[in-house]
Amino acid sequence: MPALSAKSVLRWAMEIEESGKAFYEAVAAKAQDREAKRVLQDLAYQEERHYRTFQNMLDKVPEADVETDSAEYQRYLQTALDKALLGGPEKGLALAQQASNEAEALQAAIAFEKDTLLFFYDLRDMVPASQREAISAIIEQEKSHVKQLSRVLADGPWVT
Length: 160
What we know:
Elements: H1 6-30, H2 34-60, H3 71-83, H4 89-98, H5 102-124, H6 132-155
Helix pairs in contact: 1-2, 1-4, 1-5, 1-6, 2-6, 5-6
């Protein structure tokens, strides 16, 4: 039996969305290119929307027939999140400060979104089958970010 409920996973998703929002707001504030600034601000807004979406999902997802979230899984997930590119708002803000231009910020954002996808693909396998749909919804939203960022990076005027 899986060791995590969808509710636990949704709480992790909300934490990741908060980190992403902090990152996108910080790099948008530094962006010189108007189009890059607009896209980064939009992504910050999307992260906020995702947070609210996950909060609504959290309220609707029933508790699974899971005894408890095991300490072993919790350690594993915390390590995975801590080692991820954007494991917490402080790490996200530090990463934003390191980006010297829009292209670097977009590349960092793509890497963050990829880390997020890997994290949620892994988590999806840890919840009961009846709750995987909620995690799949998270994955689809994060995939849309990678597509958007990739398109902007390829089309942006800062790409030589």
